[in-house]
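Q: Could you predict the 3D structure of Motility protein?
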Amino acid sequence: MDGITSGANVQAQVLQAAGVYAMKVANNAVESTMMTLLSSVQPAAYNNPPNLGTQVDVRA
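A: Sure. Here are the predicted structure tokens for Motility protein:
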């Protein structure tokens, strides 16, 4: 293997590593955003009923 070929291989490996790192950074950003959004979602109404303690017609 001559110097040009080995240099090209090293460059390809560096670019591949940079791509993997960029994907990890992007994935972390997406995960952080999703966790922020999920934590801000209101709980479902059936988990926190506003009419607790009142008579509800279950036949309706």
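Q: Anything worth pointing out?
A: DSSP finds one helix and no strands in the chain.
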